[in-house]
Automatic annotation (TrEMBL):
Keyword annotations: ATP-binding, Biotin, Ligase, Nucleotide-binding
InterPro entries: aa-tRNA-synth_II/BPL/LPL (IPR045864), Biotin_CoA_COase_ligase (IPR004408), BPL_C (IPR003142), BPL_LPL_catalytic (IPR004143), Transcriptional_repressor_C (IPR008988)
GO molecular-function terms, A-Z: ATP binding; biotin--[biotin carboxyl-carrier protein] ligase activity
Name this polypeptide is given: biotin--[biotin carboxyl-carrier protein] ligase
Record domain BPL/LPL catalytic: where: 10-204
Length: 281
């Protein structure tokens, strides 16, 4: 086990376990391997240097030494569709952990024109990013194996830019050091393991999505502002109205129609109004 990483007393008391590594290819890949080997879940796999991480739609996640890569393996007894809401639980837990290691500042402005919630430094970008002062700080990736309520395994991967961030990205990115916080990957993980316990209890085994939705909306980036979502088939533009009971994005289009989006890439503010979206981001 790599030195420095520890579970919080709350996490230990709730039966979570930890494996940590100085360096690893992919914490998500190892979590799914552990699931195939029969691991019962509630297992954290964590490193300060991930060399083969990946994001949504197979995109590479660029890991830098000193950043945090962590995956929580869970075996929830829920349907696959309900398990997808664990991504929102993870975002809430990470938001709480970030607030624990760096208090809110009074003002924050998103560089792409999106509104941050409550004047805080951290905001949740649907469906799976956490922003710091409007720039991408973290990404969350859920991967599953099994399909039924008896054999489902969910790997919840969380990557956080702690000491460095990639520069050549289609979206502005940042890291905790750039935001002025002297925090190690181990410090952040300790807070994350603690916050995850509380937010899983809020989720109540998938029975209280309303509570998760309400808390997520309280820290949502871009709520009420112009938004464009590339769904892969078309680009939906309008105003970010809310997320629905299933945590799908709800957009009020120019004609007043409310469109629900289950998955897609989100752009706020001035970028959302660019007609040729893919060519300009």
């Amino acid at each position: 086990m790599a030195p420095g990483f520890n579970l919080s007393p709350t996490a230990l008391g709730d039966g979570f376990r930890l494996e940590s590594f100085p360096e690893i290819g992919s914490t998500n890949a190892l979590a799914l391997q552990r699931a195939a080997e029969g691991d019962p879940g509630k297992l954290w796999l964590v490193t300060g240097h991930q060399t083969g991480g990946r994001g949504r739609r197979g995109r590479p996640w660029e890991g830098r030494p000193g950043n945090l890569a962590a995956t929580l393996l869970l075996r929830p007894k829920v349907e696959l569709a309900r398990a997808a809401s664990l991504g929102f639980v993870a975002a809430l837990a990470l938001h709480d952990a970030l607030e624990a290691v760096m208090p809110r500042s009074r003002f924050a402005i998103a560089p792409d024109g999106g509104n941050l919630a409550g004047g805080g430094r951290f905001a949740l970008k649907w469906p799976n990013d956490v922003l710091g002062d409007g720039a991408k700080l973290s990404g969350i990736l859920l991967e599953t194996s099994g399909a039924g309520t008896g054999d489902l395994a969910v790997a919840i991967g969380i990557g956080v830019n702690v000491v460095d961030h990639p520069r050549e990205t289609p979206y502005p990115a940042t890291d905790l050091a750039a935001l002025g916080v002297a925090c190690s990957a181990a410090d952040l993980f300790f807070a994350l393991s603690d916050a995850f316990v509380d937010n899983l209890r809020l989720w109540r085994g998938g029975d209280d999505l309303a509570a998760v939705r309400d808390k997520w909306l309280g820290s949502a980036a871009g709520l009420g502002s112009d938004i464009a979502v590339d769904t892969g088939g078309r680009i939906v533009r309008g105003v970010f109205e809310t997320i629905d009971a299933d945590c799908h994005l709800v957009i009020r289009e120019a004609n007043g129609h409310m469109t629900k989006v289950a998955a897609g890439d989100v752009h706020f503010g001035a970028v959302a109004s660019v007609k040729n979206l893919k060519a300009n981001v």
